[in-house]
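Batch manifest, entry 17 of 40.
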Amino acid sequence: MIKQHKFQVGQHVHYKPAGAFGRMQMSGEVKIERLLPPTASENQYQVESLFDGRRRVVRESEIG
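Output type: structure tokens
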């Protein structure tokens, strides 16, 4: 069963990368660009940083 995405396209949220690798990435405000299918039962999103414009794919647990 696919869970509904918690956030919507265009919404601004805070990105906090998880795990050891996440400490090397910059956290901060991002904009939801696309809703992506779940991986390992967790929804994913394509987001764009409001600080530097970089885009990345993040898990729902990394944003809020």
